Amino acid sequence: xxxxxxxxxxxxxxxxxxxxxxxxxxxxxxxxxxxxxxxxxxxxxxxxxxxxxxxxxxxxxxxxxxxxxxxxxxxxxxxxxxxxxxxxxxxxxxxxxxxxxxxxxxxxxxxxxxxxxxxxxxxxxxxxxxxxxxxxxxxxxxxxxxxxxxxxxxxxxxxxxxxxxxxxxxxxxxxxxxxxxxxxxxxxxxxxxxxxxxxxxxxxxxxxxxxxxxxxxxxxxxxxxxxxxxxxxxxxxxxxxxxxxxxxxxxxxxxxxxxxxxxxxxxxxxxxxxxxxxxxxxxxxxxxxxxxxxxxxxxxxxxxxxxxxxxxxxxxxxxxxxxxxxxxxxxxxxxxxxxxxxxxxxxxxxxxxxxxxxxxxxxxxxxxxxxxxxxxxxxxxxxxxxxxxxxxxxxxxxxxxxxxxxxxxxxxxxxxxxxxxxxxxxxxxxxxxxxxxxxxxxxxxxxxxxxxxxxxxxxxxxxxxxxxxxxxxxxxxxxxxxxxxxxxxxxxxxxxxxxxxxxxxxxxxxxxxxxxxxxxxxxxxxxxxxxxxxxxxxxxxxxxxxxxxxxxxxxxxxxxxxxxxxxxxxxxxxxxxxxxxxxxxxxxxxxxxxxxxxxxxxxxxxxxxxxxxxxxxxxxxxxxxx
Length: 626
Fold this sequence. Notes:
Elements: H1 11-27, H2 32-51, E1 61-65, E2 69-73, H3 75-81, H4 84-87, H5 109-130, H6 138-150, H7 160-177, H8 189-207, H9 219-230, H10 265-278, H11 286-291, E3 293-298, E4 301-307, H12 311-329, H13 332-348, H14 370-373, H15 379-386, H16 393-403, E5 409-416, H17 422-437, E6 452-458, E7 471-473, E8 481-483, E9 498-506, H18 517-549, H19 557-569, H20 584-602, H21 614-625
Helix pairs in contact: 1-2, 3-6, 5-6, 5-10, 6-9, 7-13, 10-12, 13-16, 15-16, 17-18, 18-19, 19-21
Pfam families: HD
InterPro entries: dGTPase-like (IPR050135), HD/PDEase_dom (IPR003607), HD_domain (IPR006674)
Family: Belongs to the SAMHD1 family.
């Protein structure tokens, strides 16, 4: 009986078959006994082939990586790496414009993708070795690794700046100009990654039509890989809609792109890799967390869960995400550079101009085909800079400003305590400038020269606590998992998990190129002062809103005045000759005390006249140092 005639699908089927064969073997005599032994050998070989993750017979390739050390990858992954579609990632910076602020951040999407594939395999193998009942097959292992390898194929020039800044603006411009819009709605790099992966499969099959079959993969596995890359969210109550794998293997969908709680190997790699290249300390230990990963059934669905004692390590992961966004990804200069890069691409895109001039570049329309998109990398910025085309002059000038560091001047930043739209804040800023100009400043300010940006920072799930969406098991009950109780977490965790920052820049227009530097400096100084007034206005606006809507709060005039003064004085700052380890909040208090002293020297009742006393002064200082 040959192995090809077997129709065995699960371990339980194998077990039943082997038990029957064992019984027949014991009751039989030679030569029938020898035939049954050969059948048993075939059955065992079939089990090992399907459920063992031993690839020792395959010619594994070793990659030496500064983050993960020596990484072994399957030959099929190497074939994918050795395609033009994947090699393109060598020319896309992992952190886009952040590299122009942090000179060490020169790493690319190429090495990150290989690192994610390695970690994906590492996690699958750990689950396989610790929980044989999961019935993880070689095909599962390969599919998850391939998804990790290909999950970022769809990134465009300057990485996230392309799909977060360029694409939305390109769609707006097409609509405003009445141009045909063939850019897909909500176009994100995940969808482009799927398109690029499909093109890789097509090109590999053109060389060898059995390239997937040789490694035990079929069309269903290709569908599974594409589902893993997109990582579509399926809530607990939703019916299982995925086609690549049945619901009992739902945990495999949480490895590469986890939409349930954000814990996936993509983050594990870029946290470690980005921190290494940025020079920022990484307190999260992904290797330790990986060892405590286990699949448990929660709400009738299998999820990857972690030991309860690892709750603090999990929080460190979410905190690391916030830290990287605060210090690097959303850096005040990196953000404005990426804005300029996106503007340069818009001005160079031939599809946004009537007649599609041939001396311009194919950018937004390149999204439509994998062949065109394969040619779209960070090299496009060098193409623009080295071009002599008149149609690319404006785009070239913007990039030249970046190269020469002629960037918009940063005016100020403030945390928002109330959800505001960019449009609302722009109007508030215009009002503040109008009022400030009426006070007779040394130079008049124009609101159009001072763009307003709103930056969202969170721990991965907007205003929600991500820990609440992670399931933990205990040592005594390793097969039962649930959300962690608050008493099991550190009391130092924040009460709020997101914040908004408003930033203002001074952006000179082209006709101001010859503006006197001294006058420009004065404008920035005046704008900084105006910004402090604007912050005070926003603080007072919030307090007044609370007062009007909730009279039971008993907010007084003194409360309103104190909060506004704190907003006005929170950034009085740090003198140039003061020690670097001194926090600006403490110096702001010291400067405020000096202001109070000087005002009292002129009029000792200056505070009393407005209903304020020493207790109110203490309150203001406490608000400044928060």
